[in-house]
Model the fold of this input.
Amino acid sequence: MATVKESPPPQKKVNRIGLTVADYKGKPSTLCDGCGHDAISSQLTKAFFELGIQPYQVAKLSGIGCSSKTPAYFLGKSHGFNGVHGRMPSLAAGTVLANRTLRVVGVSGDGDTASIGIGQFVHLLRRNLPIVYIVENNGVYGLTKGQFSATADLGSKLKTGVVNELPPIDLCTLAVELGATYVARSFAGDPKQLVALLEGALSHKGTSVLDIISPCVTFNNHPGSTKSYTWGKEHEEMLHEVGFVPYFEQINVDYEEGSALEVALHDGSRIVLKKLERDYDPTDRTCALSLLREASEKGQFLTGLVYVDPERENFLELLDLVEEPLALLPMERLRPPQEALDEVMESLK
Amino acid sequence: MATVKESPPPQKKVNRIGLTVADYKGKPSTLCDGCGHDAISSQLTKAFFELGIQPYQVAKLSGIGCSSKTPAYFLGKSHGFNGVHGRMPSLAAGTVLANRTLRVVGVSGDGDTASIGIGQFVHLLRRNLPIVYIVENNGVYGLTKGQFSATADLGSKLKTGVVNELPPIDLCTLAVELGATYVARSFAGDPKQLVALLEGALSHKGTSVLDIISPCVTFNNHPGSTKSYTWGKEHEEMLHEVGFVPYFEQINVDYEEGSALEVALHDGSRIVLKKLERDYDPTDRTCALSLLREASEKGQFLTGLVYVDPERENFLELLDLVEEPLALLPMERLRPPQEALDEVMESLK
Amino acid sequence: MSTEALVREKRERHIQPEAIVNDFSIQVATINGSGSQSSNNVLMRSIFRMGVPVSGKNLFPSNIAGLPTWFTIRASKQGYIARRKEVDFLVAMNPQTAREDVESLRPGAAVVYEQSLKLDGLRKDLVFYPVPFAELAKQVTEEVKLRKLLANMIYVGVVGQLLSIDKEEIKKSVVKQFQSKAKAIALNQKAIDLGFEYAEQSLTKADPLRVEHMDKTQGKVLIDGNAAGALGAMFGGVTVVTWYPITPSSSLCEQLIEYMKAYRVDKETGKATYAIVQAEDELAAIGMALGAGWAGARSMTSTSGPGISLMSEFVGLGYYAEIPAVIWNIQRVGPSTGLPTRTSQGDILFTYLLSHGDTKHLCLLPASVDECFEFGMEAFNLAERFQTPVFVLSDLDLGMNYWMADPFPYPQKPFDRGKVLTAEDLEKLGSFARYRDVDGDGIPYRTLPGTEHPAAAYFTRGSGHSENAEYTERPDDYQNNMDRLARKFETARKHVPQPVLEEEPDAEVGIIAFGSSHWAVTEARDQLKLEKNLKARYLRLRALPLTETLHSFVRSCQRVYVVEQNRDAQMAQLIRLELSQQPGQQDKIRSVLHYDGLPIDARSVADEIVALEKKASRKTEES
Amino acid sequence: MSTEALVREKRERHIQPEAIVNDFSIQVATINGSGSQSSNNVLMRSIFRMGVPVSGKNLFPSNIAGLPTWFTIRASKQGYIARRKEVDFLVAMNPQTAREDVESLRPGAAVVYEQSLKLDGLRKDLVFYPVPFAELAKQVTEEVKLRKLLANMIYVGVVGQLLSIDKEEIKKSVVKQFQSKAKAIALNQKAIDLGFEYAEQSLTKADPLRVEHMDKTQGKVLIDGNAAGALGAMFGGVTVVTWYPITPSSSLCEQLIEYMKAYRVDKETGKATYAIVQAEDELAAIGMALGAGWAGARSMTSTSGPGISLMSEFVGLGYYAEIPAVIWNIQRVGPSTGLPTRTSQGDILFTYLLSHGDTKHLCLLPASVDECFEFGMEAFNLAERFQTPVFVLSDLDLGMNYWMADPFPYPQKPFDRGKVLTAEDLEKLGSFARYRDVDGDGIPYRTLPGTEHPAAAYFTRGSGHSENAEYTERPDDYQNNMDRLARKFETARKHVPQPVLEEEPDAEVGIIAFGSSHWAVTEARDQLKLEKNLKARYLRLRALPLTETLHSFVRSCQRVYVVEQNRDAQMAQLIRLELSQQPGQQDKIRSVLHYDGLPIDARSVADEIVALEKKASRKTEES
Ligand SMILES: Cc1ncc(C[n+]2csc(CCOP(=O)(O)OP(=O)(O)O)c2C)c(N)n1
Ligand SMILES: Cc1ncc(C[n+]2csc(CCOP(=O)(O)OP(=O)(O)O)c2C)c(N)n1
Ligand code: SF4
Ligand code: SF4
Ligand SMILES: [Mg+2]
Ligand SMILES: [Mg+2]
Done:
């Protein structure tokens, strides 16, 4: 099964459409060595490779920030769009409205999403468009040299000594509350779980939000920071072991009765959640919200698939659009006939 | 006790600072006859009168919309500021930063707050500044003739036949979730409860959010609309009977042991919540959130004081500002002495 | 046409003139929310159906109900459809303003008014027609709620009778107004008849105004600019529309929604060939439009002043990353919230230069409903051809008022989708550089996401980019790209709609105008010619950037008057800059400015030009 | 100063010239995030402490670590502190760019480089100094992590020795750099000494460059414009500061935070006399600043291009509702995200006209760190006097680079809080009208919320308002108010900082410049005079709107060159418009444009002017 592979596939291995991992790589990263964002980029690369998605069918979008630079560092054969700060949701929405056949992935940061971008984020969630929205969450503004973002921990301190006194925004809670239909929290330091969650998101028909703790080694990786590698490694608590079975690999994953939960996605893929300590059902919205509340109160770092609703209609369905990309419709289908104009003119006489 | 008075005080009655209700009135309203917003304006007038607040110590701010016009229709002797659409929170924040002795009241609409203004709303909540934030919620854009706002009911229909297919934003949930320390829901058609909640808010030291269902008689008062008078009257379910005892009236309200709950505000005023059906404690954040969730799932219209934390430090305390208004500090206190400049210059040699 | 002049002259001498036929304006003063709109439409359409050219202007408050509102119907046998400053016939239904409305009338004007208002005492030089509207309304219906509405219908009857408007045409107009709602038709017709009767029996005609049958509206339509723009967008093949409500722009998208439902749902599948999204604000609206344009859709949004300001950052991205999108700016009075329901041309400079850094944008300037339709289509061709945001600068007067026009011709011009490389093209070329100036016109080639070819992909960014769309901070890369963008803009200069020149042999004076000012200028030119024998050449600008034509026009004139509806002479400034390489030319520019929020009228323009001409001649004498 | 010319000439003839003392530039090429900043500071300060005028310019990427960055130190005995195009001495530490860095050097230049890079083969006409930095670093410390940092300190030693920089001054600079951190001081000094030794023992001086003691920096300071602006704000009495991080503006507020902590905490109470708030974005930052200004605080925000675009709507409200606030725009290269770490003057027009409708704003144009300090204070006086947003247009070069200056004089001018009515005033007056032009200067009176008087309150709105601040849609109210705003702007024309004129008897040519271009222009004027005997008058603009002085200046010249750092000649456009009432004058305007993102340098300016002068004379001959 895709996600239990321990080591990355050897260079020459090809996926179901005959492409190698190299075909999914991007330009070399210019981020700091060890930046969490780079770890996420490689899992994205891996996820697309394993799903065998044609790069040309993907559109990558982002806002502004170190995190928002990353679309240049994966899927070099896909169109990419690095927009303006905090407004990626609207660009991504426009893209998928124009061409519903594209797999749209948006990459953002905590500042780009929770600070300047919270407004567009909220309204994106309400629309449930088929967009994978990734927040590379490090609690600071990396690119502008380390000021606090709206997800910074209460009381956390900058190198400069400035202390954050405002409560952090919990993006998963917001996502579930406002209508996202696939919400997960993960950790750049946990590639195995991350790739499975990404593959699930890429197979989901509505808006997926992945809040990924992604340490900023330069400005917010000091001990005590809940966005640091050490803290993450020490405190990560998995809700379940996440496995993903793509629709084209209809093998059965065997586990004892009741020891796992399967979620079928609309494209036939399945997410397999192996039970660990707790017995958690991510399809129950109310549970999801109380779980998140509990976690934030207790300061727990719970990772996994927090909430999923594979069925809720997405905005394209609500708009009842034609199957083809609107962008490619020929003039014959876009310009009404002479009669239409005559009819309107008649009504105005 | 202030809020059990049944009828508005007769014209000549004066309050503790010798002013009459007339001193708290504004210009005549230009809103549609029967607009819920006007009902709210009169309860604001009443609340300020009963609290005996000096009009000159009040600043009224708003965004753009029919609701945002209302600051012109109450407290004519207070400074008012009708700003731009969706950005009242920042103007209000600036005002209270410049002059912490002002009682700042912000009036907004559901479009002004939940649509274009959701970003500033979210960040205002995080700061917990001493601001009373009133949302006159009618589920539509009144001033632009009735388009849906982000609080419109799922599936509700406009006169034009357009149907809303996006989930409404629950402003109380957002407020509690993001840090507001006084959150209430009420109904323009329930003046008795409303005035008590307003008086409580005006006596609270942090950010108060009042989500007040305020029917738009012109565009969204049709049967079936959860923002209509009839629906409100039929479905309003009070969490408790809200009473308010101002600090300057230290009388005891008598009720049987356990039949009511008292919340002491930092200025010595008290909110008295008489039990009705349910046994609800608004000081418990988790309860508040699950209550709201339950309500929105069951489509209940619960009114009353949803959540209150009288103690949490507000942003002015966090900034540790001088007591006097920053706006009025004299030059002597604002321009550092010669030595200061010399010291800095020395360090640059 | 000399009667026009004659009549004016007489009026000035306060003589009761002989019959004035098909050449006057009626103003109806009511309270907004009282449903007078349908009455006014019926009145206007009846005259229109009699073959008399009309125009209707609605002066409404930024408010939903209870404040004063005025509707002005102008009948003009000469076909003038600009606002007319003077009111000849007043229908005073609003107690709040009745006094002022009456006082502002020209001597000799007529007033129909609610009897109880007792206005007849106010002036001696007017003709008064008292009518007990409230009383009469009771006879029409028992339902008290309906009476206010019907009182408004009654005045249609009264006015109809006094101006001898054809009863049959009124009937037809009522039917058109209330479509198939039989009950409404009957009730309203009843009210009108009552008004007619009352006027016949109780009023004695004492004013010279009269409507007579003509043949000047045969086959013509009455439509507002926003509806025309919506039609243009639809026939221009728009596929993604994003908007946020704002007066006076909302009705463009709201009417577009109606048209698209009717004509752009796929016959076979019953599915929509378009997406219309009400965004959460203007930042999102322009963002979605740009995302869609980037992905290859014909996308548009529509807004007004405050929305334009909010779109500033994104529009700069569109310019620099070269993304097509169409943005309608239905101008209203600024700055800030300003007067949301008043008209202006105050966003010219700001829109043209929108966003920080060195930016400039293509702007189309429709003057008529025809051009709203035409530019509504053409804007997409230009946006895709030049891969940049294109603005259509309309205004409240053009966008929300009723204009007479010939039915729009069915478009013959096919879409121009611009330089888009398909997989096949790439197969031939092997590769492409997104920002390279291959053809020397400054316009690069682009590919759309989803293009099935390994060479198709490129990376779009608002930060520095090389010809190959790679990130760069190199001084030369940056400067080369900026120079190419300037070159592209120069190319566009030749492709935007060119100015329209109306020659006037051996005229010393020239007039330059654009947009909704056109109609007042046309009429003013006739006034100047007739009344002062002052001939003026006329150049009507239709787009920014300005074009060569401007130079020759100015050269051919001694003095040039730039007429526009803003305080700061914004277009005149651009004209001066455009002329800066033509020694001496820009000294000829003078401004005629109108910025009180009301639609510009011919009289003000003519008077101002006459005054400035006097000054000029005095100067020349002195020197 | 004629040596300057001589030396240049010789260089051109590629002769190894004699000693060049205190007149050259050193460029250090490293990788960002490698901590070279402290090494560069030590190097620069050592030369500075030797009494030699210096300037330091940091050319860094929009990135946190791993990309190329260059630091240029210019030593100039004449005191020129503009960027110098040519590099005389290169320290090549960055493998990524070493090749190109070496290739771009002028013949005869010197190169210190990491031995392993083997650069000496690249060119024959340079002086090469190979140094095994990596190797040497090992001798300084065991800690591998520290070695990269220390390798950078080693070059300080090497360069110091080669240019005979005073060892003592280096020591002192190290101490200053690392303050009281004894361990760091020791370690870094060790590295420097090692470099010194190595150079002494293994390198033989073969270039003519040398630093000698002078007395031209006595008592002077080295500071960046953002720090100076922050000091200005503090001494100007700012009380509410709202900001959102953005390069190159962030450091202004970040340094302000430090200063305020140190000097603006109330002695007795220990409480802050200010509030500094990091907002969620620029819309909120300007909103808070306006709210605070409305309530009477001296409020400010600081941002750059994208932030200015986002502030558009709110700034229009500030203009129309008349609310004071100070907005710093530290300009970077646009459009859009552009080049965030490069410099430009590309926001002039957009900022001046910011927001829809007829708007215009007061803009201050500091050219020096002194003026950043001065205008940082004055901006508040103007904002409160004229009750309007005031912009301070700095740029990355001025704001983030090191400039030499005399210590700032302690301000003598008291605050001007403008026309604010107190309760006492109101008691006397009885009443007031918020928007009435009482004094004929267009500036109305205001009251602050909290004023204890029944007549104090008024209602502020961005929609139409009468003199009494009541809502109005009346055409006359609107127009009167707009005319008053125009009048107010005219009054401001006389109060903004006036241009500085540098006369040049009987010069035909004039130069106009502003902001950070000033230093290149000053040097260019000397070059023109010395090398071409071309004398040029010079007018340095210090604010918008432009003032009368401009007219007389242009009249006094035959040809006027406007030097600015943008593509579209934005200031030249404003100048042409300002001259439009002066027949013939604007024809004299020509533009010298620099827009590649690098700070403007004297040589480019001089060369361009010479070229244009040639053209001009050719023209006159022809005609
Ligand atoms: C409108 C605007 N304001 C400010 C900036 C400056 N800026 C660039 S990135 C950034 C914050 C990025 O933080 P985050 O989204 O968390 O990304 P990270 O660098 O931490 O990955 C800011 C404020 C900008 N580019 N645009
Ligand atoms: C930037 C901007 N966009 C759009 C508008 C137009 N507009 C005015 S009020 C309004 C909506 C008001 O709705 P709401 O806040 O619910 O107030 P209500 O009228 O319903 O009380 C809109 C969209 C505006 N004034 N400014
Ligand atoms: S600064 Fe932080 S976020 Fe940015 S690249 Fe470096 S480590 Fe990553
Ligand atoms: S439109 Fe609706 S919200 Fe606006 S005033 Fe009328 S009733 Fe109230
Ligand atoms: Mg971050
Ligand atoms: Mg509303």
Observations:
- DSSP finds 20 helices and 24 strands in chain D.
- The pocket of magnesium ion (ligand 5) is lined by residues A 109-111, 138, 140-142, 149 (CB under 6 Å).
- Chain D touches chain B through 74 residues (CB under 8 Å).
